[in-house]
Amino acid sequence: MLEKIISKYALKEILEHDKDSLAIADKSQKILWSNKNFKKNSGTDRIKGKSVSNLFNYSEIEFLLPKIKSSTSITIPGSEIKLLVTPLKADKKLDGYLIKLEENNHVEVKNIPQQDLEHIKKFQQEFHEIFSLLVKEKSHTKIKDEILNKAVNSSKSILGLLILIDENRFSFEYYAGSNINNEEETNRGVKDNLNYIQRWLSVNKRALRIENNKANIGFHLTETLSCKYLIVLPCFLEDLLIGSVILGRKNRPYTDQEAIILERLATLLAFAITSIKTRSLNAALESRLVQAQKLETIGKLSSGMAHDFNNLLSSIFGSLNLLKKRVPQSENVIRLIDNIENCSIRARDLTRGLLSFGKPSPQRKELIKPNLLLSEMIKVIAQTFPKKVALSQDIKENLHDVLGNPTEVYQVLLNLCVNARDAMDEKGGILTLKAYNLNVNKKNIIEYPLLNKGNYVCFTVKDNGSGIDEENLQKIFDPYFSTKSKETGSGLGLYVAYGIIKSHNGHIEVTSKPHEGTQFDVYLPSYEPAKIEKTIASEKLILIADDEIMLRDLLAELLETNGFTVIKVISGTEALKVLTEEIKVDLIILDYNMPEMNGLDCVTEIRKFNKEVPIILSSGSLGLNGHDINMKKTGINSFVNKPYEFDIMLATIQELI
After folding, report:
1. pLDDT tens readout for residues 494-548
2. What is the pTM of this model?
3. How far is residue 11's CA from residue 1's CA, in Å, rounded to a whole number?
4. Domains and CATH numbers, the chain
């Protein structure tokens, strides 16, 4: 229960180190937790588990607490102790109480003017109300604005400025009521004074109060911000300065008491910003993983259907190949055979095209020179895109080579550019195209959680068009989803792009804000040459293991007509029996999908007693290809997709034997 309340309403470390005496009670009014000051000022260490009424010997408090709707001060009769009690509620449901123990006879309080005491009381109430804000609000922008507004209004300041630091870059956000005539010029003036002030804050770790006096640190800042009195509040998280809050007013300086409570607001602000950013990162990562799993499922379903379909096509191709050699060479017969073959080729290509939506399998991969590919694409963009779409380029020289299908990579990048153009079609805008080399290592892998360590080429396509709202962003890679009209978009472009990038072992990400624009980042692994081992054999006895009997027999007949001797089996288990009977086989062709033992498992068993025999693995699932398999590690010498192109199969066999 305690951990639930702590995680919902505050960070335990903030309460533990707070200068006030604080405790948390559950909704039955039993103390769950208290900090050191609370134990010290309550006069006992045995607090946990006690009821609030027993702890302070005040039975009526048991009836008072349930009636409290907001932060309320309760005086303990017969003592100088006051309790400031704040109910902890989320969605109108009571979880417990935050209790602050106060003493009326603090030395600091005696000489504080009544006006300051009122301000302090208001500060304290604001401080406790922020706990509820941290539970309900998921946007760090709204929390920043709310806390900055509370700090300004509670302290009766006329200026509020939040400065966030991210890798030595500064961002400035002003309280809405701040009277700043020229923000750009003011920001420059503030930045000129920040370096020394930041060093002071990092060393002293407390608020800096500034007056318009040359003897004061940062006095030039009072002139820049047109305030006689300023207070600079550091935002620390684990000793890291992530920002600062500057408040200003003209009538009076900030007191010690105000500084203490404002520092707490700044600490809460630092926690809120970091916490919500972490939540947002986790949510975005979870969304990407769900999207990847969804598309992977579609790809697997498509691959399963294609396996059977491609086996049928392989049988058709094999039959046609043999038919051409056996039937009379009359014109009519040849024309009919050619028609069947052409239709079969179209069916094969259609299968590959449909499967490319889920996980394309490039048949021929070659070295891609990204600089040349982008140069050609930029020429097309310059000639065909409207003049109101300006092209901004940041293409680094000497981009790494990429192994893949250049046509498909070109298709993906051009499609992203076309989408960006369409998003800016009405008013025009700037299309930004970037490309650079990226090394993902243990130092920066947290920034790229979905990438493996290694070298990549990153392509970025960015526009400043209409953007995509959060709801549609989650579905952007879904098949048939499109934000365009039916006349201009099929909803398949980004789905296909996702599949192509995955088939190249890459990754694609999208970020977007409505009315600000969209950015796509494509990561493709760079090519690193690997040594290829070749096995040479001199005999011509081939073992074929395939549970598709018609396809297996056709392949066997084709090989026999070309001078090979063939042994045929229907499973990996039978293939192992043949090989253990001391029959010298010079090449093995294994189907990937077989009952009892699949092709890869069979290869593993074969390599335990024969590491030399060449093995060809075949598959009718286009979701699987030779680039998905570490052939050297698994012991496979070559990979052939179904439906077989028999000339390619024969050439592969001749190369290995």
Report:
1. 877 888 888 888 999 999 888 889 999 999 999 876 443 433 334 589 999 998 8
2. 0.36
3. 15
4. 2-111 (3.30.450.20), 137-282 (3.30.450.40), 366-525 (3.30.565.10), 541-656 (3.40.50.2300)
